[in-house]
């Protein structure tokens, strides 16, 4: 009876094997025999897996094409050890401890606790069971880990005496694994002599091997790899697969021919129609073909993924590794403002993170300076780490950038997973384990339209691989942008679509991209530093803030940042102004702003366009006296201009055109000039108002000419605009400029001019600051640091301190008057002359 029962353990079960290097055919053959001897059925591995028949899948990995669909159909995927365990128990063993799901970090752990307090013991056991492990009260042959504080417990002594293959670990190991959500090496936690107690945390530690990113450290492979075991081996990974290679990869004809030959030589085929494809290879998450392929369940990957398949001749999902999936064409909202550097990562891991930072839309810097926003480090011990603490720069591990990229949004720094640094562990050992969530990608990049237009292609060739949320909304922008200030008009606009970012070049995929647009904001309007005028009270308003969520997350940190030269309160002040302005905005203005937003939203073909025509010109106006104390005429004129496609904006960074009666040095004019707009006369406004046609007057007919002012200021407006376009708002990039609190016309005036030109702004109060500019590179030439000051006695008292601190920081101190800043901004050149040095004047 017992024998008959054993033989029917797998009765009514149909198994499928996923063969790879971890489960080779010979091992699968032995398992097949065992299963069939116990009443089970095994389908031929050479045939396509039929999920309508299969009841169990045996695999060492979850990385195979049918995994997601199997989960949806509640078909268990189990490791081969499950088979043997079931036979030992003479019944089907529990599924969870044998799942290859990488999220179950303790799936191979069979735990037994020793001298652990009851409360801690229960917590550890609960965590192990929840994360795929097993627990037994006594020591067994299958026990893999003993959790203990010392080796004095009888379980530990028994394991040592019998020389069992069991690891005696401190409870700290479980704590650190749970904090990270990843399984790290037990070695530093092993009793009887744990390294975390024996060695100082700051002592050197070798870089670990990064197996999970092998072949996936760059979206642009430098060369075409050959299969790993033999150049002449026939590829099978493309067998009966139709592959489409997109044009955005920009492959040379020779490289494309080599790839096509490899695919066709392995039994696959190449197609030029995405409707016929099983595999679609492209560079960007963009375009009609990408959206169709993604919605239709076609496997979509990039060139790096394609090369990985060729190299290993083994299937892997393009969503398994972050840089195997096409890149976002726009920066992940928020990342365009980040400057990120690395520490304690080496080799391929460092290359991977550099490319991931660029793919997210941030700027990577090899060295660290005080304008860096984040330090990503594998340990919290290095010169950079020390400087990050002193400079109040965010210090996180690589999980932050990986999960931000995978979830397509900036993750909160407050999550302890991103700030955990286990002692004597280099977190490079767990790099590359983060995977994409397909639902997130669908929601943002290819949401399903429940009512597609008749002309849209339909995936009639194959069913969708898994059920989707049909109610997912279309991709949202990174939020409305707030242009707020005490005396500004308010405009609510949809952020412009960012251009392609520059990517690394290779001989196979050379893709060049311009720099992405930056997120923008504006503050209050001040006239020229010599002007006393202000905008009317009715213009105080602001639109809802969505896109500055990362700034809010950094709000408290930035408020605490110390040091006038190297520190700043830019993010904190920015959010304060926007919150204050939002409370003062009126419903009427909000309604008007929403109409402006809808005018630009041309991505929804189902909604008929009503109201004002599309915006063709964003006009910023300064020095126009006709509207002063005449709000009625101002409203009428703006409405008439809007009907012609002209939107009057108060944000200098958004304007395409700048109108002024003459060449002036108002704050608005100087901030807008940094964007390189077309500068026209305010006569254009009157021409718009007087026109009776629906056609907007040509801006080229109203170009501003002011020979007298050009001579006075020593500039040619035409040349200035050309230089501004070339500067791309980066004239003062990485130039630290500070002002005194008592500066004439207020600190905000200069803050906005400096930041509009890409400079670093700070208010100097004389407090001590950090002495080193770059803790890893003191050899370079000293760079200038500016203090804009007036001649008040309390301002003069700050000068000696500023000079001393600047020199100690390996910088050249320059204390200048306001003319230097106005001349630089107006000329769009980094002018310098000793005549600007205010401390040299008598």
UniProtKB/TrEMBL annotation:
Residue ranges of every copy of the BRCT domain listed in the record: 5-100, 101-191, 335-407
GO biological process: DNA double-strand break attachment to nuclear envelope; double-strand break repair
Region annotation (Disordered) ranges: 446-544, 565-614
Domain of life: Eukaryota
Compositional bias annotation for Basic and acidic residues: 464-479, 571-582
Pfam families documented for this protein: BRCT_2, PTCB-BRCT, RTT107_BRCT_5
Gene Ontology annotations for the cellular component aspect, listed alphabetically: Cul8-RING ubiquitin ligase complex; nucleus
Transmembrane feature ranges: none
Protein name per Swiss-Prot or TrEMBL: BRCT domain-containing protein
Organism this protein belongs to: Hyaloscypha hepaticicola
Taxon lineage: Eukaryota, Fungi, Dikarya, Ascomycota, Pezizomycotina
């Amino acid at each position: 009876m017992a024998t008959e029962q054993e033989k029917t353990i797998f009765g009514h079960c149909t198994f499928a094997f996923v063969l790879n290097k971890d489960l080779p055919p010979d091992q699968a053959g032995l398992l097949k025999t065992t299963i069939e001897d116990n009443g089970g059925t095994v389908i031929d591995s050479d045939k396509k897996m039929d999920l309508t028949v299969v009841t169990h899948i045996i695999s060492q990995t979850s990385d195979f094409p049918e995994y997601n669909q199997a989960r949806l159909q509640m078909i268990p995927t189990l490791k081969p050890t499950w088979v043997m365990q079931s036979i030992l128990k003479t019944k089907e063993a529990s599924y969870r401890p044998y799942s290859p799901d990488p999220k179950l970090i303790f799936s191979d752990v069979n735990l037994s606790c020793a001298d652990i307090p009851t409360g801690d013991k229960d917590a550890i056991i609960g965590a192990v069971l929840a994360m795929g492990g097993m627990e037994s009260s006594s020591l067994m042959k299958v026990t893999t880990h003993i959790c203990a504080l010392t080796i004095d417990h009888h379980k530990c002594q028994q394991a040592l005496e019998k020389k069992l293959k069991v690891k005696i670990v401190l409870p700290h190991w479980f704590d650190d694994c749970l904090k990270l959500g990843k399984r790290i090496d037990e070695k530093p936690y092993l009793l009887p002599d744990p390294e975390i107690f024996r060695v100082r945390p700051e002592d050197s530690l070798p870089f670990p091997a990064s197996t999970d990113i092998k072949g996936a450290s760059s979206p642009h492979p430098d060369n075409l790899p050959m299969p790993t075991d033999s150049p002449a081996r026939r590829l099978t990974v493309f067998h009966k697969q139709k592959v489409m290679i997109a044009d955005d990869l920009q492959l040379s004809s020779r490289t494309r021919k080599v790839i096509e030959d490899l695919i066709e030589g392995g039994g696959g085929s190449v197609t030029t129609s995405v409707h016929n494809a099983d595999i679609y290879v492209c560079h960007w998450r963009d375009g009609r073909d990408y959206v169709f392929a993604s919605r239709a369940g076609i496997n979509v990957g990039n060139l790096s993924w394609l090369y990985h398949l060729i190299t290993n001749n083994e299937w892997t999902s393009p969503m398994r590794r972050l840089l195997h999936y096409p890149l976002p064409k726009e920066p992940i909202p928020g990342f365009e403002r980040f400057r990120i550097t690395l520490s304690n990562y080496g080799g391929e891991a460092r290359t991977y993170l550099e490319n991931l930072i660029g793919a997210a839309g941030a700027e990577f810097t090899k060295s660290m300076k005080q304008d860096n926003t984040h330090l990503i480090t594998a340990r919290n011990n290095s010169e950079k780490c020390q400087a990050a603490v002193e400079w109040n720069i965010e210090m996180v591990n690589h999980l932050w950038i990986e999960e931000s990229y995978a979830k397509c949004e900036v993750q909160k720094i407050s999550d302890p997973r991103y700030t955990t640094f286990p002692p004597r562990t280099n977190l490079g050992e767990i790099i590359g384990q983060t995977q994409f969530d397909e639902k997130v990608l669908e929601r943002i990049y290819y949401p399903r339209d429940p009512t597609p237009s008749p002309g849209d292609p339909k995936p009639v060739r194959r069913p969708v691989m898994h059920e989707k949320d049909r109610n997912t909304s279309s991709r949202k922008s990174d939020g409305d942008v707030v242009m707020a200030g005490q005396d500004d008009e308010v405009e609510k606009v949809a952020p412009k679509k960012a251009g392609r970012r520059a990517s690394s070049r290779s001989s196979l995929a050379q893709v060049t991209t311009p720099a992405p647009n930056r997120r923008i904001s504006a503050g209050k309007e001040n006239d020229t530093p010599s002007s006393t005028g202000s905008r009317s009270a009715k213009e105080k308003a602001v639109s809802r803030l969505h896109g500055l969520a990362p700034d809010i997350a950094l709000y408290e940190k930035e408020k605490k940042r110390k040091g006038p030269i190297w520190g700043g309160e830019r993010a904190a002040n920015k959010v304060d102004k926007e919150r204050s302005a939002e409370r003062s905005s009126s419903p009427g203005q909000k309604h008007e702003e929403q109409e402006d937003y809808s005018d630009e939203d041309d991505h929804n073909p189902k909604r008929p366009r009503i109201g004002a025509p599309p915006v063709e010109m964003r006009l910023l106006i300064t020095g126009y006296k006709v509207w002063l104390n005449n709000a009625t005429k101002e409203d009428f004129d703006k409405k008439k201009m809007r009907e012609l496609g002209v939107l009057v904006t108060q944000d200098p960074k958004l304007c395409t055109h700048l109108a002024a009666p003459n060449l002036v040095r108002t704050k608005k004019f100087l901030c807008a000039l940094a964007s390189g707009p077309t500068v026209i006369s305010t006569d254009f406004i009157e021409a718009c108002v007087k026109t009776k046609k629906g056609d907007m007057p040509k801006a080229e007919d109203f170009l501003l000419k002011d020979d007298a002012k050009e001579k006075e200021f020593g500039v040619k407006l035409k040349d200035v605009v050309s230089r501004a376009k070339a500067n791309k708002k980066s004239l003062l990039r990485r130039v630290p400029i500070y002002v005194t609190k008592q500066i004439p016309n207020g600190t905000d005036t200069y803050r906005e001019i400096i930041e509009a030109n890409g400079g670093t702004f700070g208010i100097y109060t004389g407090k001590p600051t950090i002495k080193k500019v770059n803790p890893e590179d003191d050899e370079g030439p000293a760079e200038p640091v500016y203090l804009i000051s007036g001649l008040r006695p309390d301002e003069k008292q700050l000068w000696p301190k500023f000079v001393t601190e600047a020199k100690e920081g390996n910088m050249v101190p320059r204390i200048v008057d306001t003319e230097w800043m106005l001349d630089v901004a107006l000329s769009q050149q980094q002018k310098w002359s000793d005549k600007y040095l205010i401390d040299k004047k008598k």
